[in-house]
Write a structure and sequence with these properties.
The structure is a homodimer of 274-residue chains. With 274 residues, chain A is α+β, with helices and mostly antiparallel strands. In chain A, 21% of the residues lie in helices and 24% in strands. In chain A, the strands form 2 sheets. In chain A, strands 1, 2, 3, 4, 5, 10 and 11 form a 7-stranded antiparallel beta sheet that branches. A 4-stranded antiparallel beta sheet of chain A has the order 6-7-9-8. Chains A, B: It comes from Enterovirga rhinocerotis.
């Protein structure tokens, strides 16, 4: 893929992916191709939704009406791939390891670069991601099971509807982390201070009440083990827009590939409201 | 019982129990004799533990080591029945509707006035009470079942030990309020801001994990109904000291009678840490 400026040339030295610009450059150069978990610790990573201007206003209304699954971190000007407010030299077309291109609600391609798809009318939405609150939980001594087990967080489509806006509608997707009740209470307190990255859980303890029949069969991600003294704790999930896009079928859309996020310069610590 | 100053004389006009001094005077005069729930709305009510000086230092260490069941609102000077910091013209000997006198860990009397028992070495502890956080939950639109059902909150001795200090030890007592999972999450956030009145719950969803075999058989208070879509939510309870006194058997102690609290001038709103 042609890269147009000097920073996009492969550099002789490997990038330092512990800082956010280094992480983005490593991804841009193709030296990092997998999930972004663990890159630039302490920095906010974001879910991505890119839509043409004619759908973007409705999607922004959808996000505002559904702040728990879709906490907005940034919205670009139409056609501008550089979101300077969230990252220096950031290029949204090349700085995510893998994307999903959607046409009429169907996935058509999963490229590592969307420069060929770029258009002057595309608006980029960066949406808060659970990596930020997982860091806060780990710092408080709470084990995150899917991290311990080295897999993706289990995610489930629920019977909870999102609030529709324009063409956008569909069920809430939640991520699940098993915890002891005492840790679940602590996790509510910790994540409740972080509304910019999904905030407090939306549900706990009773998957049947939100339409989840079997925790061992997630709709996205991987199943994790749940111990006898644990309850499942559910957070609104940034994969909700992808489920909504599949349901609402906009003509054209690009999202990140689950787990392959945009790494920003924003500090997780800055997201706390208290 | 002889009352020594003018304010303790029955007044011609009934006291206004919607303000805290009026509530205390109505209790002192004997015109209010039952539970204090609903008196002086918006004001902090407190659990009471009164101990001789030789046990008081250990009990203070016990309270500091167990802040969730024993959040300290005030501690008196030895022998001083007036806690001016928490109420004007407050007299701890007469301003609680009913007391329990304990000798060697056994209840010996449940008087309406402890003036005959007063000694120059008695230290008064006022401990935060769930009435304050229940008000905050109700203001947020959360139903409190035992209030709806017009009975006392159900309380249970648990398998969770308190942290011992000196002679004081014994199991944590919890109060239980059934809620939908979504309201339970909200309740964690609301009560977590109120550490001075028990703070966030200590447990939820799984009574078996904390040694509660049957929610229909509380150790104190009354059973309440639990709906199919609800989970039990447990808070550390200010009755814990009474259970601890029965276990630890100090030579002499006075507590309030459950439900008959000391009404203070402190505002519930001032207890919030954010």
């Amino acid at each position: 893929m042609a890269r147009s400026n000097a920073l996009r040339q492969p550099s002789a030295a490997p990038q330092d992916v512990s800082n956010p610009l280094g992480a983005r450059l490593a991804i841009r150069e193709g030296s990092h191709t997998g999930p972004t978990a663990g890159m630039a610790p302490g920095c906010v990573q974001g879910n991505l939704v890119i839509l043409p201007k004619y759908d973007a206003a409705d999607f922004l209304r959808f996000a505002v009406a559904n702040p728990k699954p879709c906490p907005i971190i940034a919205v670009s000007e139409p056609g501008d791939p550089h979101l300077a407010a969230i990252g220096s030299d950031l290029d949204i077309r090349t700085d995510v390891p893998r994307y999903v291109v959607w046409k009429d609600g169907r996935k058509t391609e999963e490229p590592a670069d969307i420069t060929p798809h770029w258009r002057d009318d595309l608006v980029t939405f960066v949406i808060g991601c659970s990596y930020s609150f997982e860091q806060a939980l780990i710092e408080d001594g709470i084990e995150i099971r899917h991290i311990t087990e080295g897999c993706a967080v289990p995610m489930y489509r629920t019977s909870i509807p999102t609030t529709p806006a324009g063409p956008f509608h569909g069920p809430l997707v939640v991520s699940m982390r098993p915890m002891t009740p005492a840790n679940a209470i602590r996790a509510v307190q910790i994540t409740g201070r972080l509304p910019g990255v999904h905030g407090a859980p939306v549900h706990l303890g009773r998957p049947d009440l939100i339409g989840i029949a079997d925790l061992a069969k997630p709709d996205y991600g991987d199943a994790v083990s749940i111990r006898d003294d644990e309850i499942p704790v559910f957070w609104a999930c940034g994969v909700t827009p992808q489920s909504v896009i599949a349901t609402s079928r906009p003509r054209f859309c690009i999202t990140h590939y689950p787990g392959s996020m945009i790494v920003t310069d924003l500090s997780n610590a800055r997201l706390s409201v208290s």
